[in-house]
Amino acid sequence: MRFHHNLLQGTVDALHQIFNEGKYADQAIQKILKRDTRWGSRDRGFIAETTYDIVRYKRLYAAIANVKEPFNPADLWRLTAVWIVLKGHDVPAWEEYYNTPVRRIKGKFDELSSDLKYRESIPDWLDDLGRKELGEELWAKEMSALNKQADVVLRANTLQTDVKTLQEKLLAEEIQTTTDERFPDALILNERANVFQTDLFQNGLFEVQDAGSQTIAPYLQVESGMRAMDACAGAGGKSLHLAALMENKGQVIATDIYKGKLHELKRRARRAGAHNIETRLIDSTKVIKKLDSKIDRLLIDAPCSGLGVLRRNPDAKWKLQPEFLDEIRATQQEILQSYSRVVKPEGLMVYATCSILPSENELQVEKFLASEAGSNFELLDSQSLLAHRDGFDGFYMARLLRKN
Ligand SMILES: C[S@@+](CC[C@H](N)C(=O)[O-])C[C@H]1O[C@@H](n2cnc3c(N)ncnc32)[C@H](O)[C@@H]1O
Predict the structure, then answer these.
(1) 310 CA distance to ligand 1 centroid (A)?
(2) What is the rounded average pLDDT for all residues in the chain?
(3) Which pTM was predicted?
(4) Does the annotation flag 301 for ligand binding?
(5) Annotated binding residue at 296?
(6) Which InterPro entries match (predicted)?
(7) Best of 155, 255, 257 for a ligand 1 pocket test (most atoms within 8 Å of beta carbon)
(8) Could you read off the pLDDT of 105-118 as tens digits, one per residue?
(9) Which residues are annotated as catalytic?
(10) Correct CATH for 153-208 of 3.30.70.1170, 3.30.230.10, 2.40.10.10, 3.60.120.10
(11) Shortest CA distance to 395 belongs to which of 215, 244, 233?
(12) Do the interacting molecules here have an ipTM over 0.95?
């Protein structure tokens, strides 16, 4: 492989912003990619993928390169040298790579790879927690799968098209996709492409949404004409799916505590042609009180650690802190306690997260069921998706029935 200095310089600059300035990886990469308009899609792909790879394996690469944070420019170049050697490429004869100890890098890699914390690059506290919650074997398999690059998955917007038609239209634009019978509205890109630039996207024929995430809205068993609520709607990934499943009939009440996210949701709903979504900002407890026992189907897509979606946000591994996890678990329980009251007798509620930790998932549901607010609910079913087993992001979902 022939390397270009300016692409590796772009990678080093992105890493500096992420590791030393605390920027989010996707934002830092986007900013760097805007820098040089001559960069084509391959160049952009190289910078993005190399940066993400080094973010994923920061702990391993830093130990091999024998560098510590905060990384100076020479340290960051050493991280890229480790990446080049471990990918099996020849190190370019550039000043920054002068005297790169290729054999030592390979030897160190073999030595450190026997330890999961290094092999999969996991902070100590998180490794301890994961082993405790999932058991050593499952944790190791899952962390390895979560370090792989995620597929780009589309959800056909059935308000506008169907999977087969969309697949043909994409093919006409030289975008090849694969279907998966487990996920009926999903199309998986055979090769990465910037699908956001297509007219098909601009005209609302699809959303970009992981296949695992596409199982959540159907799990709520909505029907046309029902009154559904997406309590933690964010920018509306699941609200849009619910509207499509309800064929634009009935109502989807989408709530969040952030105005900006609901604003983005409305923009996406217009593009998708989803007309039955109504947004409501949660700025007081009154919003929930007003809906007391009025909702047929409640989705709680709760805020969480995001450990199931590490393939998309690998820097979350380095940003997560134990205190944040404690706070988010408390928030999850509060949300269950306060929102569950909106469900009608005989109505259903789905509690979902993009976490793989039982303490954010089944244990939260158990705690809720044992509480006063949960005493008139019954757990009907639950499902976990794991990256190493199911091939997509990690999710948890539980379906509960309000009995009376
Ligand atoms: C997992 S994200 C939702 C993702 C979204 N459902 C989607 O599919 O794109 C969780 C959301 O919960 C929101 N949130 C946090 N606390 C909340 C609360 N008390 N009530 C409602 N939403 C809350 C966050 O702002 C965030 O948008």
Answers:
(1) 18
(2) 97
(3) 0.97
(4) yes
(5) no
(6) MeTrfase_RsmB-F_NOP2_cat, MeTrfase_RsmB-F_NOP2_dom, RCMT, RsmB-like_ferredoxin, SAM-dependent_MTases_sf
(7) 257
(8) 999 999 999 999 99
(9) 354
(10) 3.30.70.1170
(11) 215
(12) yes
